[in-house]
């Protein structure tokens, strides 16, 4: 059964690789954070800030490139604008950012997790196999976001490791989304 969601996603697959690339970058960032827990918190703060800023640019580009074909493209645009604004705020205020980074990351990841959950459910309705993994990644990201927000003073190590896992989960979501979009092109 063909639906308008299916038709709109099928026509948007020309940029599926952007989601995969962004997902790979998230996974790389997650593993980098795991491998360098003793790095300066200032350095980690700046890396997060730049990465969130770059993520916003790519998300906005994806949304604009697919605005005429994708149902719900506004979610991508909203996410990109949110990332861009948060990235600018984090980069421009490094001292304040160090103190409030857990809250920024927590709320940012919460939005991303909700986005993953919200986008995975329509994929189920069109019969995509990977929708369950995207749902799990979204729920796990929301859980990690709550952990970060509720325990910002728990210690920099817990924030570092929780952030690393959450970045990997967001990356997994983006990779599955990208390959799901590509699969529409093959049908």
UniProtKB/TrEMBL annotation:
Pfam annotation, one family: DUF308
Nucleotide-binding in keyword set: no
Domain of life per record: Bacteria
Keyword annotations: Membrane, Transmembrane, Transmembrane helix
Membrane spanning stretches: 16-34, 41-64, 131-153, 159-181
Alphabetical list of InterPro entries matching this protein: Acid_resist_chaperone_HdeD, DUF308_memb
Cellular component, GO annotation: plasma membrane
Parts forming coiled coils: none
Keyword Iron-sulfur: no
Protein name (record): HdeD family acid-resistance protein
Organism: Putridiphycobacter roseus
């Amino acid at each position: 059964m063909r639906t308008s969601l299916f038709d709109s996603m099928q026509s948007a697959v020309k940029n599926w690789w952007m989601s995969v690339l962004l997902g790979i970058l998230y996974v790389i960032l997650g593993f980098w954070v795991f491998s360098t827990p003793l790095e300066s918190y200032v350095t980690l703060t700046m890396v997060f800030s730049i990465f969130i800023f770059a993520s916003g640019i790519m998300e906005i580009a994806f949304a604009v490139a697919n605005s005429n074909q994708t149902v719900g493209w506004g979610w991508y645009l909203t996410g990109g604008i949110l990332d861009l604004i948060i990235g600018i705020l984090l980069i421009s205020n490094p001292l304040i950012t160090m103190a409030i980074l857990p809250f920024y990351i927590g709320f940012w990841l919460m939005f991303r997790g909700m986005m993953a959950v919200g986008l995975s459910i329509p994929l189920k309705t069109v019969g995509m196999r990977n929708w369950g993994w995207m749902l799990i990644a979204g729920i796990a990201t929301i859980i990690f976001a709550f952990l970060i927000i509720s325990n910002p003073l728990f210690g920099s190590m817990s924030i570092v490791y929780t952030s690393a896992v959450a970045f990997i989960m967001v990356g997994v979501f983006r990779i599955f989304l990208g390959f799901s979009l590509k699969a529409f092109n093959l049908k």
